[in-house]
Amino acid sequence: MSEHLKNRPSGAPETSFGFAPVEESARQGLVNEVFARVAPRYDLMNDLMSGGLHRLWKADLIDALNPPKGAVPFALLDVAGGTGDIAFRFLAEAGEGGRAVICDISAAMIEAGRARAAGKVQRLSFVQANAEALPFPSASFDAYTIAFGIRNVTHIDKALAEAFRVLRPGGRFLCLEFSSVQMPLLDTLYDAYSLNAIPRLGALVAGDAEAYRYLVESIRRFPDQESFMGMIEDAGFDRVRYRNLTGGIAALHSGWRL
Ligand code: SAM
């Protein structure tokens, strides 16, 4: 167990890291430790854990974004972009006017993304930063995406406010995240699979059950579809909606900065 979990002085603001209570100020450091450890096996584990489903969900996000073809300039900011899945798919779909910035707080995840992109992906840059304090001017992007990233952020309201700020008026917000399963039976099966099998798979493939236990527990701590939709609206977005994917295992949330 991390020292942060064992030695919690009382009185400091608390939050959760997976199922464990932690000081708010310690949480991002713990999250960063997780991603530093899983980065080398991140892409392989995604395929194994989801049976490839994450690829379909990410394709759904790009379909919903429907980036312009041709020379129309279109700038995407992919926050918590990790090893680049969303940005690579976007650049493959968009015309020559498309460019993407992958922003992630983890140097290890960015390094893994850079290695994947090397010599293959053009019109792409990487920036290491926290979603809660983006180092970009206001109104500088046409679209903001965040896939399986926002539940790792300590102050989700700040990240949403930053998403709103960096989007130009008319810009699109899209968020893919694990959500609350909406089908009886599937929810029981999914609970059993995720809480037991995924940490075991993490131990086997990445040598790290704890990291994958956090990833699964953090899904349970994340607000359900309706609550998260309310948070997006509170950040100022319009025409906010969501679509359940695979019975609500994941949900695709979207909104517009008008
Ligand atoms: N978007 C990628 C994907 O869908 O495959 C990566 C998702 S991965 C589960 C979560 C990512 O969020 C990690 O790369 C992690 O470093 C990043 N992250 C966690 N907290 C963050 C924060 N506060 N700001 C920016 N990125 C963050």
Task: Tell me what you see in this structure.
The chain has 258 residues and is α/β, with parallel strands linked by helices. The protein folds into two domains: 2-37, no CATH class; 38-181 and 217-257, Vaccinia Virus protein VP39 (Rossmann fold, 3-Layer(aba) Sandwich). 45% of the residues lie in helices and 24% in strands. It has helices spanning 3-6, 24-38, 42-50, 53-65, 85-93, 107-117, 156-166, 186-206, 209-221, 225-234; strands at 14-17, 20-23, 74-79, 98-104, 124-128, 141-147, 167-178, 238-245, 250-257. The protein has a seven-stranded mixed beta sheet with strand order 5-4-3-6-7-9-8, sandwiched between helices. It has a two-stranded antiparallel sheet with strand order 1-2. The protein binds S-adenosylmethionine.
Gyration radius from CA atoms, angstroms: 18 Å
Contiguous helical run count? 10
Strand order of the largest sheet: 5-4-3-6-7-9-8
Domains, number:
2
What is the arithmetic mean of pLDDT? 94
Which hetero compounds are present in the coordinates? S-adenosylmethionine
Task: Count the E strands.
Answer: 9
Strand fraction: 15-25%
- The succession of helices and strands, N to C, reads HEEHHHEHEHEEHEHHHEE
Structural class: alpha/beta
Helix content: 40-55%
Instruction: Determine the N-to-C terminus distance.
Output: 46 Å
CATH superfamily of the largest domain: Vaccinia Virus protein VP39
**What is the level-2 CATH architecture name of the largest domain?**
3-Layer(aba) Sandwich
CATH structural fold name of the largest domain: Rossmann fold
The profile of the biggest β sheet is: 7 strands, mixed
- Which CATH class of the largest domain is shown? Alpha Beta
